[in-house]
Design goal:
Elements: E1 2-5, H1 20-28, E2 32-36, H2 47-52, E3 56-58, H3 61-67, E4 70-75, H4 79-82, E5 90-94, H5 105-109, E6 113-116, H6 131-150, E7 158-160, E8 163-165, E9 169-173, H7 177-188, E10 192-196, H8 202-208, E11 212-214, H9 235-249, E12 254-257, H10 272-276, E13 283-286, E14 303-306, E15 309-312, H11 322-340, E16 341-342, E17 345-346, H12 353-358, E18 359-362, E19 365-366, H13 369-381
Parallel strand pairs: 1-2, 2-3, 4-5, 5-6, 9-10, 9-12, 10-11, 12-13, 13-15
Antiparallel strand pairs: 6-18, 7-8, 14-15, 16-17, 18-19
Helix pairs in contact: 6-7, 6-11
Bound molecules: nicotinamide-adenine-dinucleotide.
C-alpha cells in the first residue's frame, strides 16, 4: 500500500499534508511512503527529513500520482493532475466540495475516493481530525498579528516618563474557534477586548478569556442549531446585531470579524456607513472573506484603505504560518488515516459516521447528498 505526498501546486500554498514524524508512524504500520522532492520546503521541512523518516523521494510527479493508493493533500489538485490519479486511490484534503464541486469531477470520474476534511462531522470522536478548527486557530492568531502590525498605535497600556499610552481596543465579531483565538492573542498583547456572537453559549468562553461579551436582545430567537452552530438569522435579527456592531466599532482600534453560518454566505454585519464612522487608523480584518465577507466593503483577497480605515480580507492566513499550520494539519490527517488504515492495508468502513460524513465520492459516484445537489443545481443553471 503506497502513500504519496506531493508538493502542493496551488498558487501561494505553503503547507504540506504530512510531516516526517507522521510518516514514520505510517511506515511502522506497514505502508510504503513516497514524497515529491521539495514537498515540505515551504513549510521548513527539508527533503532529508522525509528520507530520514523512511520515505523515498522522487521528482516524477506524474509517476507519484499514478502510483498512489493513499494521497493526503492540502488542496484539490488541478484537473490535469486529478486525471493522473488511479482508480481506487483514496485522497483526503480541503477539497471545497460545496463551493467548487465541479473542480472535483476529473477525480470523481477517474474513480478516486475523495474525503473532504471540511465535511468531517464535528463530533467529539472526530475532534483530533478537525482541520477546520486547526486552521481557524492559526487564522485567528494571525489576524491579530496582521492588525497589530498595521495599527498606528501600540496594543498594551504603557506608563512611561513621557506619559501613559492607553491600551488598544479590539472588537471581535463571531466567537467561534478563530474568534476565541483572536481574543486570546489580543489579550496577550495587552489589548482591551470586546466580542459579539449570536450564540449565547459563546459568552462564557469570551469572558473566561478576560474579554467583555456584548449581548444583543434578539427577542428569544433560536440562534443555534442542534449541532451548536449559528443559524441563519432573519434580516430583523441581523439588523439588531449591525446596530450594536456599528456603535462598538466607532471606538475600536481593531475589528476582527469571523462570523460564518455553515453552508451559507457569510452574514453581512458591517455596513459601509459603519466603516465610514470608524476612526481613521482603524484596522478591520475580515476573516469571513472566503465566504463573501462580513463587511459590505470587503473585496475577498484584497487590502483597501477606505477613509483612513484599513480593510484586510485575507483568504488563506494559515499559509502565512506554514510550519505550524502543516504541523496541526498533518496531525489531523494522521488521525484520519488511523481510521482507514488497518494492518498496512486500506479498510474503509463506510458505516462509520466520520467516513460517511466526509466522503464526497466513492467508486466513481458522488455519495454526499449535499455535493450531489450542488452539482445538479450547477448543471441546471448551465
Ligand atoms: P464558524 O466558523 O461557523 O462561525 C464563527 C462564529 O460566527 C460562530 O461562533 C458563530 O456563532 C458566529 N456567527 C454566525 N453568525 C453570526 C452573526 N450573525 N453575528 C455574530 N456572530 C455570528 O464556527 P466555528 O468556529 O467553526 O465553531 C462554532 C461552534 O462550534 C463553536 O461553539 C465551537 O466551539 C463549536 N465547535 C465544536 C467542535 C467539536 O465539537 N468537534 C469543533 C469545532 C467547533
Amino acid at each position: 500500500m503506497r502513500l504519496v505526498i506531493v508538493k502542493e501546486a496551488a498558487v501561494g500554498e505553503t503547507r504540506v499534508a504530512l510531516l516526517p514524524d507522521a510518516i514514520k508512524n505510517l511506515i511502522a504500520k506497514g505502508l510504503e511512503v513516497a514524497v515529491e522532492a521539495g514537498a515540505g520546503l515551504a513549510s521548513g521541512i527539508a527533503d532529508e527529513a522525509y528520507t530520514l523518516a523512511g520515505a523515498t523521494l522522487s521528482t516524477d510527479r506524474t509517476a507519484l500520482l499514478a502510483s498512489a493508493d493513499i494521497l493526503p493533500l492540502v488542496n484539490a489538485p488541478a484537473a490535469e493532475d486529478q486525471r493522473k490519479i488511479k482508480s481506487g486511490c483514496v485522497a483526503i484534503g480541503f477539497f471545497r466540495p460545496l463551493d467548487e464541486p465541479t473542480g472535483l469531477l476529473p477525480a470523481i470520474e477517474s474513480g478516486v475516493t475523495l474525503f473532504a476534511v471540511e465535511l468531517v462531522p464535528r463530533i467529539t470522536r472526530a475532534q483530533a481530525m478537525d482541520a477546520l478548527s486547526s486552521m481557524a486557530t492559526v487564522a485567528g492568531y494571525k489576524a491579530v498579528i496582521l492588525a497589530a502590525n498595521t495599527l498606528p498605535r501600540l496594543f498594551p497600556m504603557l506608563m512611561t516618563a513621557a506619559g501613559t499610552i492607553a491600551p488598544a481596543r479590539v472588537f471581535v465579531i463571531g466567537a467561534g474557534v478563530a474568534g476565541l483565538q483572536a481574543i486570546a492573542t489580543a489579550r496577550r498583547l495587552g489589548a482591551v477586548v470586546e466580542a459579539y456572537d449570536v450564540r449565547a453559549a459563546a459568552g462564557e468562553q469570551v469572558r473566561s478569556l478576560g474579554a467583555k461579551f456584548l449581548d444583543v436582545d434578539l427577542g428569544g430567537l433560536a440562534t443555534e442549531d442542534k449541532g451548536g452552530y449559528a443559524k441563519e438569522l432573519s434580516e430583523e435579527a441581523l439588523e439588531r446585531g449591525r446596530d450594536l456592531i456599528a456603535r462598538t466599532a466607532k471606538t475600536a482600534d481593531v475589528i476582527i470579524t469571523t462570523a460564518q453560518v455553515p453552508g451559507r454566505r457569510s452574514p453581512l454585519l458591517i455596513r459601509r456607513d459603519a466603516v465610514e464612522n470608524m476612526r481613521p487608523g482603524t484596522v478591520l480584518v475580515d476573516l469571513a472573506a472566503a465566504g463573501g465577507g462580513n463587511c459590505e466593503l470587503t473585496k475577498p483577497g484584497e487590502t483597501q484603505v477606505h477613509n483612513g480605515v484599513t480593510l484586510f480580507a485575507p483568504l488563506n492566513l494559515p499559509t502565512t504560518v506554514p510550519g505550524h499550520s502543516s504541523q496541526l494539519y498533518s496531525r489531523n490527517i494522521a488521525n484520519f488515516l488511523a481510521l482507514i488504515v488497518k494492518d498496512g492495508a486500506l479498510n474503509l468502513n463506510m458505516q462509520d459516521e466520520i467516513l460517511s460524513g466526509s466522503c464526497v465520492a466513492h467508486q466513481g459516484k458522488v455519495v454526499n447528498p449535499r455535493v450531489a445537489s450542488a452539482l445538479e443545481a450547477l448543471a441546471v443553471s448551465q
